[in-house]
Amino acid sequence: MFHIREAIVVEGRYDKNTLSQVVDTLILETSGFGIFKDPEQMALLRRAAEKRGLIVLTDSDGAGFVIRSRIKGAIPQEHVKHAYIPDVYGKEKRKKRGGKEGKLGVEGMPPQVLEQVLRRAGATFLEEEPPEKESAPPLTKADLFAAGLTGGPDSAARRLALLKELSLPEHMSANALLAVLNGCYSRQEARKILKLT
Predict the structure, then answer these.
(1) CATH numeric code, 2-121
(2) What ranges do the domains of the chain cover?
(3) Would you list the DSSP string of 183-194?
(4) In whole angstroms, how far apart are CA 85 and each of 17, 44, 108?
(5) 135: pLDDT strictly greater than 80
């Protein structure tokens, strides 16, 4: 079990149960779309984000991205990190039918995948030395354009292919991809991924 400084927000109790077997940290639930009607819950997320940082770990379906966007719009971005599970099609064991989009949620992810997505999001693992901060400037939208991932006739298809290659959700926007590239890879690694080197 890993100890993480940041609090993690997930959609529901089954996600929380699965995650609590992998990490020891404060895990909060949105109760799905309940976050839209519960100002006290949003206040709790804000408080946790200010005190220890917050990692948003929602499902990779459309509903997960709606919840992620709500949190992203309500909490200052300097306190929030985003972890993305890959698009894996299937059904959780406890369910009779799969979800609307047929993808596994956080509760269906194996422990090693959850660890990987948390590391990729920049979670602070308390048992480990923090990585050195990079001094090189981050990638910009111009880099995505130069790689053919925005602004071109086949940009969406190319971006989707890259998202699949990196095991990231297909609903991810170009801005979210840019944040992942800057937050999870060194500038040199990210330029190599974009084939800009």
Answers:
(1) 3.40.1360.10
(2) 2-121, 141-193
(3) HHS-HHHHHHHT
(4) 16, 24, 10
(5) no
